[in-house]
Write a structure and sequence with these properties.
With 269 residues, the protein is α/β, with parallel strands linked by helices. It folds into two domains: 7-166, NAD(P)-binding Rossmann-like Domain (Rossmann fold, 3-Layer(aba) Sandwich), CATH 3.40.50.720; 176-268, ProC C-terminal domain-like (ProC C-terminal domain-like fold). It is built from twelve helices and eight strands. An eight-stranded mixed beta sheet has the order 3-2-1-4-5-6-7-8, sandwiched between helices. The longest helix has 21 residues, at 198-218. The protein is elongated and about 70 Å long. The structure holds NADP nicotinamide-adenine-dinucleotide phosphate. NADP nicotinamide-adenine-dinucleotide phosphate binds at residues 10-16, 36-39, 42, 70-73, 75, 79, 96-98, 120-122, 174. Residues 10-16, 36-39, 42, 70-73, 75, 79, 96-98, 120-122, 174 line the site of NADP nicotinamide-adenine-dinucleotide phosphate (NAP).
Length: 269
């Protein structure tokens, strides 16, 4: 990262602090960063990392190249207009808030602001996230590179050229970690019903989902083929898959669940 770049992070909770840790780990200098957060504890912790932090926007703050909003979506309406001058002076606005459309930031800031909307997900906390990004037409390639660099500190990054795809992305990678957590829970509950202790059931379920996910991610073979490779005709896996892939099974449920999430995302937006 160009050492002249200044990054202003507004909101340093779960997602904001994951980003901050990722940036520092990536070698972005603490002096390039400034954090604004409402909580005294967060400010103290941030300062202990050598990063300047304050509870509100000071008049003498250095002009940032990018303002990253990582607050709850409902806080944006009152917060974003305070940054209109910084945006007008050339800062690109990068928001990770779920659901808020680019047009809302344009309205809140006025003028012709540069806006990048991002949808990260929870595994960003361990730098294994995936973030979808979409920019308005005011954003140039230099700002795109900067935003991509900032989000790639917590995992993979993909660009969308159509903002309406964000609803589907939210339904897959945004909400998706919860579906996988549910899979771990239901696998563990089923294991207990088959007579395993709660501890053993949780351990087997968690390690299986984590291990299979990591294996699928690292293997050059696509997941459907991996599934076939572990399914012997007439065996135990096949017995289970006949239930999971049968009528009303996992495929149907997941399709319905994703459709419900995407519809809800459209409603909220
Ligand atoms: N966590 C995820 O995995 C995830 C995934 C995708 C998208 N996101 C998006 O990321 C955003 C942040 O989520 P989060 O889970 O990180 O929330 P969070 O843990 O509640 O963090 C938000 C932080 O912003 C601070 N804040 C609120 N209002 C402020 C203000 N006016 N000025 C300065 N700081 C302020 C909050 O302080 P107070 O507690 O004092 O309000 C809090 O420390 C959300 O919009 C969410 O949609 C999160």
């Amino acid at each position: 990262m160009d050492p002249d770049r200044n990054i202003l992070l507004v909101g340093c909770g779960n997602m904001g602090s994951a980003l901050l840790r990722g940036w520092l780990a990536q070698g972005i200098g603490a002096r390039q960063l400034h954090v604004i957060d409402g909580q005294d504890g967060v400010i103290e912790q941030t300062r202990s990392l050598g990063v300047e932090a304050s509870s509100s926007l000071a008049a003498d703050i250095a002009q940032p190249d990018v303002i990253v909003f990582a607050v709850k979506p409902q806080q944006l309406d009152t917060l974003v207009p305070q940054f209109a001058d910084l945006a007008a002076r050339g800062a690109v606005v990068l928001s990770v808030a779920a659901g808020k459309p680019i047009a809302a930031y344009e309205r809140l800031l006025g003028g012709a602001p540069m806006i990048v909307r991002a949808m990260p997900n929870t595994p960003a906390a361990i730098r294994r996230g995936i973030t979808a990004l979409v920019a308005n037409s005011a954003v140039g390639s230099e700002q795109k590179v900067l935003c991509e660099r900032l989000l790639s500190a917590v995992g993979d990054v993909v660009w969308l050229d159509d903002e309406s795809l964000m609803d589907a992305v939210t339904a897959i990678s945004g909400s998706g970690p919860a579906y996988v957590f549910l899979l771990i829970e239901t696998l563990a509950a089923a294991a207990q019903r088959e007579g395993l202790t709660a501890d053993l059931a949780s351990k087997l379920a968690l390690a299986t989902v984590a291990g299979a996910g990591a294996y699928a991610a690292q293997s050059p073979i696509e997941p459907g083929r991996l599934r076939e490779q572990v399914t012997s005709p007439g065996g135990t896996t096949q017995a289970a898959l006949e239930v999971l892939m049968g009528e009303g099974g996992l495929e149907t449920l997941v399709r319905k669940a994703v459709r419900a999430a995407a519809a809800r995302s459209r409603e909220l937006g």
